[in-house]
Amino acid sequence: MPHTLLEIRGLHQYRGFRHVLRGLDLTIGHAEILGLVGRNGSGKSTLIKTVGGQLAPREGTMLLDGAPYGPQSPAQAREAGVSVIEQDFAVAPEVTVVENMLRHTDLAQAPRQEQLMRGVQVLGRTGFDLDLERPFGELDPAGQALAEVLRVQAEGARLVIFDEVSAVLDDLEISQLHAAARLLRESGCSILHIAHRLEEVTALSDRVAVVRDGVVVEVVDADRAEADDLVRAMLDRGLPERHQAQRPAGREVLTVRGLAADGLAEPVDLTLHGGQVLGVVGLRTSGARDLVLALARQAEAHTDGRVAHVAGRSDDQLEARQSDVLTAGLEGLDEHERLQAAFVRAIEFEMETSNLHAPVKNLSGGDQQKASIASVAETTADVVVLEHPTRGVDVGARTRAYDVVDELVARGKAVVVLTSDLSEVLSMCDRVAVLHQGRVVAVLDTADVDEDVVMDYALTGASAPRRVSREGGRRSAPRH
Ligand SMILES: Nc1ncnc2c1ncn2[C@@H]1O[C@H](COP(=O)(O)OP(=O)(O)OP(=O)(O)O)[C@@H](O)[C@H]1O
Predict the structure, then answer these.
(1) E strands within 92-163?
(2) Which residues constitute the domain of residue 145?
(3) Is 473 a residue whose pLDDT tops 70?
(4) What is the ipTM of this complex?
């Protein structure tokens, strides 16, 4: 490992009464990208908040370049050279790229021309294709991530923390983020990269650290890291093998002809069958999400509103009690029975169970997402539409999310899943509709294709010629 930049020894941290970090040790080298993985609730965000100055360290030592480090605020952390790029970025939409870049520097209040001059300098070092005067809200998430990389550069960061930044990006956008991260590393900056998709973490990182129950249990070189070993270290067990039977198409639950929507270049014909899962994939500008929203609206109109649509965590859900969300759809329960049922569900999903009366927002990010998946498990709807159901969910609980989908289709429901995770499409869906530039360019049986074929359609609108194995198609490796 290169010369140490940050050294953490015996770090303890609490959230409320909860003892989350329990003597955590970690070192990050100069110009090193360190991946950090761990199951939901293992303490990753708590660690980031402590290193980034949002939570004052309770016990333990941190040294930055050999000097004692214990920031009492994010501003103090930045002053010492530690900047955080937050999940979902937390930047007001009207703020321009250059204003965002300089918002924590002494040019924050400077005249526009002065800001632009500095902005051009920083931008010039990166070669990013970004308009400095564009409002943040008009950028796609990859552009927003790059704008945030410019900000940490302008702040002169020595250590940048990526807090699940890649979670909202599609595969093409992730490659842009990785290029930006490598550029930061070349300029001497270190990165702590937190993410759940193990192949993405190992592709970018030099080493990968695994957190379990508030301590680092393993650190491995990324090029020697095996997904199965990382999973075992994270969960303290392996993953069950998942065998997906080909599900026969059930009754036609919804047939749409000439479905139009903003974002779709031509009308779409599609049939949703009960007992099957349809995946919808495509790059951000492909119209994939527009199609899914239009399908949800059509389903609403044609099934007497019997549609369950889960689109991430809503504000209402975040404020609701965990026990109510976990038992949504279960009727006729008294208070005690509801709590019991919620407890069982939380255990099934390997969620935190210490205070089911508390609002969902008190859970870790991944546990919040699990709660929203759990909220449709008992739905009486005919059509279930899930947008990015496993975003931020750890590999162990993902299996449970797939089980929920299996149970829904076993009950005859038609499930539509929008996801940017191609291997998940293959392991979860029976058919996949691939969109490219506003058109459905293919509807494929997932049994006949592999990730490369789906990616070809998504990127180019067509499938590149390739050799097909005798068995008639190759499925990708099991999903981690
Ligand atoms: N505001 C809060 N109040 C009470 N407990 C909290 C709060 N935030 C987090 N916790 C608890 O602290 C523990 C660690 O949470 P943390 O957010 O650090 O996990 P994580 O590893 O980042 O999870 P994820 O992968 O889901 O983001 C969890 O058990 C969580 O329920």
Answers:
(1) 159-163
(2) 4-235
(3) no
(4) 0.96
